[in-house]
Amino acid sequence: MKNLDYRTKYGLIYFLILFFTSNIEAQSASNLSNQSKEISIQLLYGRTPALDFERNYPVLQPGKGDAVSDGSALFALCANFSKTVRKNLMWDIGLETGLNSYQLRVIADEEFLDLGWEQPYVSELTFYDVLYSSAILSFRYNIPLTQKNLIFLKAGVRTSFFLPIVADIQFRASPQPNQSFNIFSTTVQYNEKNNVIISPNLSVGYSHKLPESKISLNTVINTSFSRKEILAGNYRINGDQETLEGRLSKKMMLLTLGVGVSYSFQ
Questions:
Q1: Spatial contact of 111 and 65, defined as CB atoms under 8 Å apart
Q2: In the chain, what are the helix, strand and coil shares in percent, each to the nearest 5?
Q3: Closest alpha carbon to 254 in 203, 215, 178
Q4: Which residue from 195, 194, 219, 215 is spatially nearest to 206, judged by alpha carbons?
Q5: Averaged pLDDT for residues 70-84
Q6: Is 230:191 a contact under the CB 8 Å cutoff?
Q7: CA dihedral sign, ordered 192, 195, 201, 206
Q8: Per-residue model confidence (pLDDT) at position 11
Q9: What is the C-alpha to C-alpha distance for residues 196 and 137, in angstroms, rounded to an integer?
Q10: In the CATH scheme, what is the code of domain 35-265?
Q11: pLDDT value at 90 more than 50
C-alpha cells in the first residue's frame, strides 16, 4: 500500500511537470502570433503612378510638342502600434509621413519649335516636394511559420492629407547666349481644396524574431489607392506658330516596400 502511494505520488509529480513543460513549449511556439502588444517602425520606399493628361490636341503627334510622364518614387517613415484582439488577430494603428513626387518630360520637335538645334528639344524633371501624412487603422492577422517566423496580413483604411502648395514650373531653353525661350509653363496646385483622402490600405509582411529577444525584424509591402487627385494644373507648350494647352493631374496611388524593427511586450 505504501509502495502504491509512493508510485502514485511521484507519478502525479511527473505528470504535472510534463503538463506544465508542454504548455510552456506550446506557448513559446506561438509566442510571435499572440504577443499582446507590439510597437514597430519602418522605412518605406515606393513607386507612384505617372501624371494623367487631358490634352486639347492629339498625343505625341509628329512635328509637334507634348508633355509626358513616368512613375516616380516615394519615401516615407511609418510607426505602428498593435494589440491582440484574439489568437493571431490584432488591431493596428499606423502613423506615416512621407515625400511623394511626380515626373514631367517636355518634348518639342524642330518643326514645332526652331531653336537652331539639330535635334528636338527634350527635357525632364522630377519634383520631390509633395509632402503628406497618413493615419492607418487596420486589422492584422498573423500566420505562424516557425517559432521565430511569421507572415502577417493587414486590411484597413488610410486617411491621408497632402500639404497644400502652389508650384510654378517652367521649362526654358537658351538657343543663344543671353537668350531664353519659355517652352513649357504650368502652375500646379497640391491639394487645392484641402481634402482629406480616405482609401483602402492592404499589406502583407514577414517577421523574424531575434534569438532570446523581444525584438523582431520586419519587411512589408503596402498598397493604397484612390480616385482623388493630390495635385493638378493647366499647362501651355509654346511653339513658333502655335500654343498647345492641356491639364495635368496625379491621383493618390502608392505601392511601397518597408523594412523595420518591432518590439513585443505584454
A1: no
A2: 10, 65, 25
A3: 203
A4: 219
A5: 97
A6: yes
A7: positive
A8: 47
A9: 15
A10: 2.40.160.20
A11: yes
Domains of the chain, by residue range, sit at: 1-30, 35-265
How do residues 20-45 score in pLDDT, each as one tens digit? 444 434 444 444 445 589 999 999 99
Place of cell 513607386: 47
Strands 52-55 and 65-68: unpaired
Task: Extract the C-alpha cell encoding 147.
Answer: 517559432
* Cβ pair 197, 161 in contact under 8 A: yes
Q: In whole angstroms, what is the distance from residue 203 CA to residue 82 CA?
A: 14
Name the more confident of 102 and 23. 102
DSSP 25-90: HHHHHTTTTT-SEEEEEEEEEEEEPPPEEEESS-TT-TTSEEEE---EEEEEEEEEEEEEEETTEE
Least confident of 25-39, 204-218, 228-242: 25-39
Q: Write down the pTM of the prediction.
A: 0.81
> How much is the mean pLDDT over the chain?
88
Q: What are the start-end ranges of the H helices in 213-256?
A: none
How does pLDDT run across 170-179, given as a tens digit for each residue? 999 887 777 7
Residue 184 CA: distances (Å) to CA of 44, 127, 150, 167: 33, 15, 52, 14
Residue 196 grid coordinates: 482629406
Strand, coil or helix: what is 13? helix
| CA pair distance 71, 46, nearest whole angstrom | 10
Residue 1 has pLDDT above 80, yes or no: no
